[in-house]
Design goal:
- The protein is mainly alpha-helical.
- The protein has nine helices and two strands.
- Helix 3 runs antiparallel to helix 6.
Length: 246
Amino acid sequence: MTGLVPLAAGPSPLWYATRAGGTVALVLLTATVALGIAVGGRYTPRRLARFEVSALHRNLSVLTLAFLALHIVTAILDTFVHLGWLVTVVPFTASYRPLWLGLGTVAFDLLLAVAATSAVRLRMGQRRWKAVHWLAYASWPIALFHAAGTGTDTRLTLQLALYAGCLALLVAAVWWRLNRAGPGRVAVRLCAGATAAVVPVVLTAFLSSGPLQPGWAHRAGGAAPAAKVAVHPAPTPTDDDEGGSE
């Protein structure tokens, strides 16, 4: 007599939309931060007017928030992992992969702070606004580690190449800015250079010891979500079936 066992249903369109939205948001955030770093300070592009660069930077920021909103809303609506709306603004409160989802929440909160203060930039003053605006730079590495730690596609060669490309672009932007910078602010320049050198090393070590190793889905934290089931004939048991998708 053939037994019956539950098999997990395939991912829903929301599952794909969440990952697509997050990936595009990371690429757009990378472009936004890289542009802000490269053309900031005393450097003025020769072929573009200053207002054109500012407009491009602002439009990229808006697009980043739009795809980030898509990423968040589809993740909440998808029933594969039951997440409440609270986790979108309060970090580390999710029961599923709390650390890595929490990093995404921190990055989102930082970007919200930048967007909110940009809307009242003239009222709060240039110095205060610029101090808050630096949070956008901090949000990028946090978002990158969130994607690498939480993303279910991290092992894919194409996804790893995308992370490497984003990282290379940011490091190049930082060194370009340091090369073009004038004298002064030695401490800031040393900190920026050290960060640009350390982040690739830390990310590589993290990927090698974490997401690229077997069993990361369980070690990342949180119980596997209950999957939708379908009834099929029972297959022959295997010894090394790790089970479950991330």
